[in-house]
Design a protein that fits this description.
The structure holds two protein chains of two kinds. By secondary structure, chain A is mainly α. In chain A, about 80% of the residues lie in helices and about 0% in strands. Chain B is about 75% helix and about 0% strand. The two termini of chain B are about 40 Å apart. Classes of the chains: A mainly alpha, B mainly alpha.
Chain lengths: ~280, ~290
């Protein structure tokens, strides 16, 4: 049976492939992907297990490593929630309202994408330092942002904002007015329509944007280190601890933290794919 | 007159928010953007020009700063074209052919975006470092990847890896295969089909992606910081030079070079906005306004 099956399948494939360059383009793609991304990532995943499973566990379960992971992921989650909330309002204003300077506001949203993270870091640090524009006001109320864990939160909020706005914007503008009109016809007040109709419809996009902001924040390095003060156990993020361990030539220890962060990225990537499938099904 | 007013109020557009809500939401949106995005930008330029234009300019043409500009430009000049070639090739394979595992391939291409920049640098240390897989062997031939330009280029390539592919894949999938198939059936060669049919269709999307890829390549900090070795005047890129000056309390110098990078970011944003506004139909759907 299979002797008949194969030629049929291959003629079917050949008929479909009218265009040239399949093996060349796919071959180059796989070669480049393997060389630049997959092999180096494999080097990372294998490295900590030179220590054995027990050694790997010992490397990541020290209080300092755990504190840094808690800080990176905890603050990234908080930043994602803040970005989702304000990102929703900003996207709403950009899609629904008309006012002068809207184009400028829209263009500015991408600033954290375009501005190098180190540049953002020194700017934020100057702004929130006790003698800075914002820092000097906050210090009167006893709030210190620069060189504390709150600095981590501010930097991650800055870096994550475009993800939430840019994910919500196209979905909001695609969404027609008909459901809102229907809700209004059925006697819903505007606030009821927003809370019971609009927000639930935008929930998948909101979660997707939030997840992207979270993933970016958890791995963020450049903008955070200038603002955070980097005290071990208090304001030291996980990526910085990787750098510190590398400087001490503790490659396996650095790789162990790297593997934990990579595993978290994988989980986030899978969650994002799941979210997008869910959003597509609901549309 | 009065009657007309109440009529229009009663039949006001039900999909429009009340004026008070509109004002409050607009104020929150503008306030948040001003606080989190505009103020950092403003403080950046203020600090750069705090001691006058002349001093800022001198900080940029100082030899170590110029060397860092050169390293950044060289890294981008190698990484961006290679990633562009990869992106076109990946998009051609994904959009024009059917094969098993396509979705998985697209997910893998996106992977570098969700990896922490520091981890992106770390993986090359583990391959090319002296305790790494290839490091000692390459050192035998006097080839140094780490703490040299090749390492910087590799780290830059990794972090900017998905840019072109993820813009072109949805764009070319949308455009389908009909035009290329027509060209081939009329006897055009594969290469001339690509140059005369595909390329004109994707040129603005391609430019858009290269623009963003280039901005990230010049601005990358975390990944490059891990592999560069921070040798002043030799392996420091512009963002690394900013860090070095800042940590040495040379604030005018740090903010002058940072201002240069910020200017580049603003030019990128402006061009991006023009492309989104002018050629919206020829970009991937997610950027259309």
């Amino acid at each position: 049976m299979s002797a008949f099956g194969i030629p049929i399948a291959s003629t079917a494939l050949r008929r479909r492939r009218v265009l040239p360059g399949f093996s060349l383009s796919l071959g180059f793609t796989l070669f480049y992907l393997t060389g630049i991304v997959l092999v180096p990532l494999l080097a990372l995943v294998i490295r900590p297990f030179e220590l054995g499973l027990g050694g790997f566990w010992a490397a990541i379960s020290t209080p300092r490593v755990l504190a840094s992971l808690r800080l990176s992921f905890g603050m990234a989650l908080a930043a994602a929630v803040i970005d989702s909330f304000f990102g929703f309002i900003i996207a709403w204003v950009l899609v629904r309202y008309r006012f002068p300077g809207k184009g400028l506001l829209d263009a500015l949203i991408d600033l954290p994408f375009a501005l190098p993270t180190a540049v953002a870091g020194i700017a934020l640090s100057t702004l929130y330092a006790p003698n800075g524009w914002i820092g000097s006001i906050l210090i009167q109320y006893g709030i210190r942002v620069a060189y504390t864990p709150w600095g981590v939160l501010v930097a991650m909020t800055f870096i994550g904002l475009p993800f939430t706005v840019r994910t919500l914007q196209p979905v909001m503008s695609e969404q027609g007015a008909d459901v809102e009109e229907a809700a209004a016809t059925l006697g819903a007040t505007r606030l009821q329509t927003i809370a019971r109709v609009i927000v639930p419809m935008l929930l998948p996009a909101m979660l997707t944007g939030g997840a992207m902001a979270f993933a970016r924040g958890a791995g963020e390095y450049g903008s955070v280190i200038f603002l955070a003060g980097n005290l071990p156990m208090i304001s030291e993020i996980a990526p910085l601890l990787i750098v510190t361990k590398l400087e001490q030539f503790d490659y396996a220890g650095a790789a162990a933290i790297g593997v934990v962060m990579l595993a978290a990225s994988f989980v986030m990537l899978l969650a994002l794919n799941g979210l997008q499938a869910w959003a597509a099904k609901r549309r | 007159m009065g009657g007309e007013k109440t009529m229009s109020a009663r039949f006001s557009n039900p999909t429009q928010d009340p004026i008070l809500l509109r004002l409050v939401l607009s104020a929150i949106a503008i306030g948040f953007v001003a606080l989190f995005l505009v103020l950092p930008l403003a403080v950046l330029f203020r600090e750069a020009f705090a001691d006058g234009l002349g001093k800022a300019f001198r900080a940029i043409i100082e030899p170590d700063a110029l060397a860092s500009v050169k390293v950044s430009l060289m890294a981008a000049a190698i990484a961006v074209p290679l990633n562009t070639l990869f992106g076109i090739s990946a998009a051609w394979a994904v959009a024009k052919f059917d094969f098993p595992g396509k979705t998985f391939l697209v997910t893998l291409i996106d992977l570098p975006f969700s990896v922490s920049p520091v981890v992106s640098g770390l993986i090359y240390v583990l391959v090319f470092g002296m305790q790494g897989w290839l490091g000692p062997w390459l050192a035998g031939y006097d080839i140094h990847v780490l703490f040299a330009l090749p390492g910087i280029v590799l780290a830059t390539m990794f972090v900017t890896f998905p840019f072109v592919a993820r813009e072109l894949i949805p764009l070319m999938v949308d455009q389908g295969r009909d035009e290329e198939e027509a060209a081939i059936s009329l006897g055009a060669s594969g290469f001339s089909t690509f140059c005369r049919v595909t390329l004109p269709n994707i040129k603005w999307g391609l430019l858009y992606a290269v623009l963003l890829c280039n901005a990230r390549a010049l601005g990358e900090f975390g990944a490059v910081s891990v592999v560069s070795g921070h040798i002043r005047g030799q392996t420091n890129t512009m963002p690394l030079h900013v860090e070095l000056l800042y940590n040495n309390y040379d604030y005018v110098g740090a903010f002058a070079v940072a201002g240069l990078l910020a200017m580049l970011a603003l030019v990128t944003l402006t061009l991006k906005f023009i492309l989104e506004w002018r050629y919206a139909d020829e970009l991937a759907a997610s950027h259309r306004r």
